[in-house]
């Protein structure tokens, strides 16, 4: 988890954010809020069952100087209220609580003004993997099921925008497939190759992209050398662009459950990042998701 200390430091340098949390009445959310509030990262608007919110506030010894609790009779209504606070500017950032991702994403997509012009909604995750030498980003493992080439370009644009805002550098992007050879029968390879060509033509900017690359070639310099892959990206990828949601979701969970990774996730393509947590996430992951959003955001 030592690489995530850099994420925490990025967030700690910023002040003045207000975060609206949709359906915040969950103990792990309040633990994460406490840690962020104690470090003066943000103030919070908590929408949910007021009795449960007050109970969890008391358990965490939280005061209302940085936290406001607002009653909502259901998780769905809490999502509506938090979304409205975000859209109206009463909150700079929106955070998913115990409402489902499908519900919150659906509400965001109903109002196109929540998206940046020309963007699509996508999911972006960041990982601290003990065996990898730096922070690793992954997109899109949660929103777009089978994106077209043009959708992949927009998903990539979302990820690169966040990366450059956080790290002030040009990321190395691996467009993943099962093999490095372009095969017309495997659309993941042709899309990856086209994205690589598009970068050379100026249609994809602010990154170095190579593809198709298999996962081992993207993350292991030794594997890339054995395969004789001549690439600045191979073995040193910053962002993994997956071909579709199934591979992305499985890769995300394999990092978490078998590689000992700590992760945080956002919805991007929106006017400001939306903090995306899983109901199964512990308070540490939820805290780092807050850090991730603050590090990636700008105050309007």
Automatic annotation (TrEMBL):
The keyword Protein transport does not apply. The keyword Secreted does not apply. Transmembrane segments: none annotated. InterPro entries: P_Ac_Bu_trans, Phos_Acetyltrans/Butyryltrans, PTA_PTB. It holds the Pfam family PTA_PTB. One of its GO terms (molecular function) is acyltransferase activity. Keywords: Acyltransferase, Transferase. It comes from the Bacteria. Residues 81-291 form the Phosphate acetyl/butaryl transferase domain. PANTHER family: PHOSPHATE ACETYLTRANSFERASE. Belongs to the phosphate acetyltransferase and butyryltransferase family. This is Phosphate acetyl/butaryl transferase domain-containing protein.
